[in-house]
Amino acid sequence: MPADDVAALVAGAVEGQPRAVARLISLVEDRSPKLREVSAALASTAGRAHVVGITGSPGVGKSTSTSALVGVLRAAGRRVGVLAVDPTSPFTGGALLGDRIRMQDHATDAGVYIRSMASRGHLGGLSASAPQALRVFDAAGCDVVLVETVGVGQSEIEIAGIADTTLVLLAPGMGDGIQAAKAGILEIGDIFCVNKADRDGANSTRRELRSVLSMTGDDGGGSWKPSIVMTVATTGQGVEELLARIDAHREHLAASGELGRRRLARARREIEALALTEVQQRFAHLSGHADLDDLARQVVEGGTDPFAAADRLVQAL
Amino acid sequence: MPADDVAALVAGAVEGQPRAVARLISLVEDRSPKLREVSAALASTAGRAHVVGITGSPGVGKSTSTSALVGVLRAAGRRVGVLAVDPTSPFTGGALLGDRIRMQDHATDAGVYIRSMASRGHLGGLSASAPQALRVFDAAGCDVVLVETVGVGQSEIEIAGIADTTLVLLAPGMGDGIQAAKAGILEIGDIFCVNKADRDGANSTRRELRSVLSMTGDDGGGSWKPSIVMTVATTGQGVEELLARIDAHREHLAASGELGRRRLARARREIEALALTEVQQRFAHLSGHADLDDLARQVVEGGTDPFAAADRLVQAL
Predict the structure, then answer these.
(1) How far is A225 from chain B (nearest CA, A)?
(2) Do A292 and B275 meet the contact criterion of CB atoms below 8 Å apart?
(3) Most-buried pick from A135, A266, A315, B17 (CB within 10 A)?
(4) Looking at chain A, which residue has its C-alpha nearest residue B278?
């Protein structure tokens, strides 16, 4: 087939062809002219896959945990997609992250699709780029898609916006309890996982976490109580229990109607982010009284204020 | 004067009245109906203050360092504003940050204005709310405004977008070198400060940092080479040298023309953020074919795709 025959690629992805999946995600990620065509072709592929966001501070073992989850999912015969999101610096496009060698255990397994994606710090962040990639995995028949954020940053919070279930990882002895609270990630977790549970301090991390969680109360997801699972991802200890909790959360979401609400909110944010990106591009191309560079100069020189300048942009649309 | 007579408040701020400064910042932060009026009244107050962003991972000593810098600035007879930005959770408005007791040494000094501000995770983040507060400090005659981010998150990166000079703090033994690289904050630093320099590992942190900095090269700010200063903020050790580097960077910015470029870019982002916020509000109020909830439902059900839905929004503006 021609390399970028979108209909053929989507058909190939639905049949589970790894190359078609990879090519579609590239088209999505590169924001190619074919992006809209891909989006339209994927619209009717159902939202079947369970999207699980995995977040936590650097060093807690996100990659290892993701890999361990892939292992137990595959052992159960389930198809898995992995999307690793790099919150690459918005300033250079960042080449500092070239050190990642991961997921090698699963690189040759036809039931696993693995993909890294830069979030690039653009307007809308994750919510503008990742959903299309998730749709590709979905079309390819993945039962579960694991979305892992690499490093720190806003993407830790944003991940809750694109996932059905958000898994927050912690590790003993990193002061993560309080730090996590400050970053707001405790509030986004459906399931908490204390990884490296064989290390000193694992139980006190669990205690601290349990105490903070009891303060924050219900997160609006109905009757779901965030649970805490202890794992040692490197040995696989606790990982089956972790998957059981993930599956239980999915069942809870479906039964309570929360799944539909989350997906509706997600679609809303995605549409909004795309529309705002389009508007931002139009702003950059306005001229005359609404030339953005000229308005910025006037603001710096004190000739106008930012609100008046913004009004001119909006009026000129 | 009447509490919210904007012209009188601005006149009071220019005279250095702490109450007028505090009231104006409240008007700005609360996004009150007076916000536009305040913005217009402040437009012609010059961009005289040197805005210094202070960022770094939790635990490196940002508050202590900020306080120590205030001390040496005041000793030199310079007026100082401090804006502490809380990256409060976008999900609850976050009440977890009630534990901050800070800057008490300077609370009664009339030459120091101190203010906390929530960034609230709204569209545009820091770049939509902080600049107006900075203008208030500027109008009040501050020579230097220190903007400190509390906790972690996107605000660490955003701070570079609102500051003339960005100071990145690290501390020994926190694995900060590599972590910072991942978060992209190394690329935004004009000056690096290894705080807690009396602790084990301070020199190896400096070495690691120097090595990473030599890889990233010049940041586009002309001939400025990011420097590394060692401090013990709790005792004041190295803090005068830190201020000297901050002043040197300001001189470099002015001499190279980079100051003007950074401020132009900042104004541009600010205008853009305000305009996009306005557009986003309009999106939320569209109806009929462009009703956002209805479009989201169609996307979830596979009846349309997000790009087509976004097009409808933009067209309906």
Answers:
(1) 17
(2) no
(3) A135
(4) A314
Could you give the ipTM of this predicted complex? 0.81
Helices (H) and strands (E) in chain B, counts: 12, 7
Describe chain A by its helix, strand, coil percentages, rounded to 5.
50, 15, 35
Q: Which residue is it, tokens 């079309």?
A: A139
A217: number of Cβ within 10 Å: 8
Question: Measured between CB atoms, which of B272, B297, B303 is closest to A292?
Answer: B272
The pLDDT assigned to A282 comes to 93
pLDDT digits (tens, 9 = 90+) for B156-209: 667 777 899 999 998 887 654 555 555 566 778 899 999 999 999 899 888 888
Task: Identify all chain A residues contacting B88, using CB atoms and an 8 Å cutoff.
Answer: 184
What is the per-residue pLDDT for A127? 54
| A50-56 vs A144-149, strand pairing mode | parallel
pLDDT digits (tens, 9 = 90+) for B66-115: 999 999 999 999 999 998 876 553 332 222 232 233 455 565 677 888 88
In the structure encoding, which two tokens stand for residue A24, read together? 């579609």
Contact by Cβ (8 Å): A35, B307: yes
Taking only the tens place, the pLDDT of each residue in A111-126 is: 888 887 765 544 445 6
The token duo for B165 is 């000079």
What pTM does this model have?
0.74
Pick from B153, B264, B275: CB nearest A314: B275
The CA distances from residue B231 to A11, B72, B78, B202, in Å, are 61, 13, 21, 10
Cβ separation B183–A91 shorter than 8 A: no
Q: Facing residues of B288 across strands?
A: none
Q: Which amino acid is at B317?
A: L
Q: What is the dihedral of CA B105, B109, B115, B116, to 10 degrees?
A: 10
Q: Which two tokens stand for residue B77?
A: 């007879």
CB contacts < 8 Å between A and B, how many? Answer: 238
Q: Which residues of A touch B257 (CB under 8 A)?
A: none
Q: Which pLDDT belongs to residue A120?
A: 54
Tell me the CA distances in angstroms from B74 to B17, B133, B142, B166, one per residue in order: 17, 21, 11, 20
For the ranges A147-156, B19-28, B39-48, B77-86, the lowest mean pLDDT is seen at A147-156
| Cα atoms in the 13 Å half-sphere on the side-chain side of B112 | 23
Q: B267 vs A102, which has greater pLDDT?
A: B267
Q: What is the Cα–Cα distance from B118 to B88, expressed in whole angstroms?
A: 6
CB B87 within 8 A of CB B154: yes
Contact A307/B40, CB-based, under 8 Å?
yes
Interstrand relation of B50-56 and A227-230 (parallel, antiparallel or unpaired): unpaired
